[in-house]
Amino acid sequence: MSPIILDGENYTNWSRVVSNALKSKTKFGFVNGDITEPNPTSPDVYAWEKCNSMVTARLYNVIERKLHGSVTYVETAYQIQTDMKDRYSQSNEIKSPSIEKRNHTHRPRNNKCE
Fold this sequence. Notes:
Elements: H1 11-24, H2 29-32, H3 45-61, H4 77-88
Helix pairs in contact: 3-4
């Protein structure tokens, strides 16, 4: 997904590259909170879980191993992104672009996550 691995010092660049990669796959909503977990009884819950797991795994793979402990047991891609932002964006606060929150929902079509 990203040639940049988050090492704790490069959050701004990492966040930008990861955001663009996820936007290109229409998965950015999983990290910015736009695509939220459906009700457990919703027929969309399995498609959401599949897509969230895919995005979570992709994020995990572009975070340096020494930082894995803080995100290993996190359940959602949004929580990973929020944790990384809270921990590592302060050093780059002036340069760091804020991630906009949008108020819309997105449901994966046909229970597919591509």
